[in-house]
Amino acid sequence: MGKKSIHDWRPLRIMKISRLLFILIYVFSRVPRFTTALMYLLRPLYEPTRETWLNRKFRYGLLTLGGGLLAPEVFRAYGSGARAFVENFNSVFRAHKKGEPIVWVEWILNAEILESFYVTSMCSALLNIFANVESMAAPSQIIEEAENQGTPVEYCSAMKLNMGAYLLHQIPKPDLIIAGSHPCDTNVSIAQTMEYVTGAPSYFFDVPYWKDDDSFRYTEAQIWEQIEFLEKRLGKKIDWERLKDMLERVNRFNFYLGEICEMHKAIPCPGTMINLGYAWVVREVSLRSPHALAMAKGLYEAVKKNYLAGKGVVRHERVRVLLWFPPIAFFTYLFKWMEHEFGAVIVADFIGQVSTVPIDTSNKETMIRDLARTQMHLAMGRQCHGPVEFITDEMVKYFEQYSIDCMIFTGHQGCKHGWAAVKIIQDICRERNMPALFLNIDIMDQRCLDEQGVKNEITKFFRVQGWA
User: Is residue 218, in this structure, part of any structural domain at all?
Assistant: First the structure.
């Protein structure tokens, strides 16, 4: 970034750069073998332990794509995901230019309902992931701008990035906002602030504490209220046939990713969690696109090919890792680095695991009923809205089902509910003789612990265990 100030950025600059890069990813994904080999040959330019002026614009992107270590068929599926991103960005730019409504949808909520209103929706937390295309320092600078403008320092950096991006005109102003009361207090507080700052009418989901029939019915009633809110504010009726088509694609999308999660139980693990992490981002940004489904199917077929052949994602699998709490994927992708350096495969994590329920599309009542259940089973949302057992029981289940050798707890600064559970998690690991590394980090803000610091901590942990 040199001496150029973030205040000199043109409006939507980072989104426009991201769109260009995703177009290139899609184009090169059409020749996956050539591109995979090229990325591998170019690794010396972007694999060094730090970002340089030479690799600043492409290092994060190429590492996100596996840095030449993904199978060509997996990279081809990534291209479909990139095309889904481009579709969403194009619709946002078009609506912004024409003055058409743009609806922000909180990252932890489904945007399917918006599809049935023919309205442009966007995940306002886009720059949580894509700000790195400007430089790996950009997220911290955007966060600092939010803090300088009065956003509390103790807030989760994901929400500070959201606020900073809006203040810097890097995401467009919303006409409506759909938000919720989970997974943390920051989410609740920042949503109210965003409503005040943007002036956009908002609908807030009051997420129930439990996951029982009463809770599902309560959420279902709120989805009906959301539909009424949208019909009133948009001045149009919901298209139930369009919603049915959308939800049938969602069912297939969830099926493919759920099957990948099941296949990860195999020894050796036939896939990499970077696939499910990438798919999670596609879900948050552009699940409505048919190309999102094409991506999920492509990933499923690639992992199934390995599974049927009894082939692992690495030649010699040495360590099976559970990555618990939000994954460090916003300023460094550990997945392929750990596989390449140590033969350590992250077989399950907090975000990528899919446990949604099938949606019955027989009629509008069953669609809304099951959409409510699915929404309460989305990653992070399902673990972080009730008792601590929602976090620990799922963790123990993965210990047993995925033949875990160790756990890495990614102690994100903003996840106060996660830190509150640390002593309980430590006790569980001690009782089960489960080696565990507890990182004190911020998954988006490198001012806490930078990329090399994270890698140093993991390397020391593996050495102590005799795995490095």
Answer: no
Task: Measure CA 199 to chain center.
Answer: 27
What are the distances in angstroms from CA 49 to CA 55, 67, 330, 332, 437? 11, 14, 16, 10, 21
> Is residue 442 a part of any domain in this protein?
yes
Domain with 415 in it: 241-465
d(Cα 384, Cα 387) in Å, to the nearest integer? 8
The tens place of each residue's pLDDT in the chain, 468 residues long, gives 445 689 999 999 999 999 999 999 999 999 999 999 999 999 999 887 788 888 888 888 888 888 999 999 999 999 999 999 999 999 999 999 999 999 999 888 878 899 899 999 999 888 888 888 888 889 999 999 999 999 999 888 888 999 999 999 999 999 999 998 877 777 778 888 999 999 999 999 998 999 999 999 999 999 999 999 999 999 999 999 999 999 999 999 999 999 999 999 999 999 999 999 999 999 989 988 999 999 999 999 999 999 999 999 999 999 999 999 888 766 667 889 999 999 999 999 999 999 888 999 999 999 999 999 998 998 888 998 889 999 999 999 999 999 999 999 998 888 888 888 999 999 999 999 999 999 999 888 888 888 889 999 999 999 999 998
Write the CA distances from 377 to 22, 136, 357, integer angstroms.
29, 32, 8
Q: Tell me the backbone φ, ψ of residue 321, rounded to 5 degrees.
A: -115, 140
Angle between helices 364-375 and 240-263 (to 10 degrees): 40
| Among candidate residues 328, 337, 332, the one with its CA nearest the CA of residue 272 | 337
Residue 386 CB partners (closer than 8 Å, separation 6+): 209, 210, 211
> Phi and psi for 182 in degrees, rounded to 5?
-135, 165
Is residue 232 in some structural domain? no
> 72-98 and 290-309 helices cross at what angle (nearest 10)?
170
Domain tally for the chain?
Answer: 1
Instruction: State the Cα–Cα distance between residues 401 and 194, nearest whole angstrom.
Output: 41
- The dihedral of CA 417, 210, 247, 200: what is its sign? negative
Q: Using an 8 Å Cβ cutoff, are 175 and 200 in contact?
A: yes
CATH at 258: 3.40.50.11900
pTM of the full structure = 0.94
Residue 44's Cα: distance from chain center in Å? 28
Angle between helices 240-263 and 273-286 (to 10 degrees): 170
